[in-house]
Design brief:
By secondary structure, this protein is mainly alpha-helical. It is built from 4 helices and no strands. It has helices at residues 18-44, 51-73, 77-101, 117-144. Helices cover 69% and strands 0% of the residues. The two termini are 24 Å apart.
Length: 149
């Protein structure tokens, strides 16, 4: 009879749980910052997006990090880490494009003065920071999962 192999929780001082913890912290930071940034969009009155942008944001920016947390906590660290890296690269690229490079209502360099301008600019900047951290964390966690599921 074959016995099932059970994974043990990391013991004190064991670094096996470190990537999962880092991924969870990044997912929480990204999700919280995205919610604050969405509030700034609504506050500025420019929440209207093209259908493909809404789909991209719904899947890549919002849902994927949540799926990452679920995958990692269920023990699928490699899949979760890969999805984190992919979603953070996509989110970071989208954010830089629309908040810095492409002329339009979301470009932080050309925002008109208003009560939500500071919140919008601050959360757009914070998103760059947490998404870049997510890229690094996803890359490092993916490397830490070599040979694991």
């Amino acid at each position: 009879m074959t016995q099932a192999v059970r994974s043990r929780p990391p013991a004190a001082g064991d670094r096996a749980g470190a990537p999962a913890t880092a991924v969870t912290v990044v997912v929480a930071a990204v999700t919280g910052t995205n919610l604050l940034h969405a509030a700034a969009h609504v506050g500025r009155g420019n929440a209207a997006l093209a259908a493909w942008q809404e789909a991209f944001i719904a899947v890549v920016v919002l849902a994927s990090p949540i799926a990452v947390a679920v995958l990692v906590r269920m023990g699928h660290r490699r899949a979760g880490s890969g999805l984190l890296l992919a979603s953070m690269v996509g989110s970071l690229g989208f954010g830089i494009a629309y908040h810095v490079l492409v002329a339009g209502p979301d470009n932080v360099r050309t925002l008109p003065a208003g009560p939500w301008t500071i919140a919008f600019s601050a959360t757009a900047t914070l998103l760059v920071i947490v998404e870049a951290a997510g890229c690094v964390t996803g890359w490092r966690a993916l490397g830490a999962t070599t040979g694991r599921r």
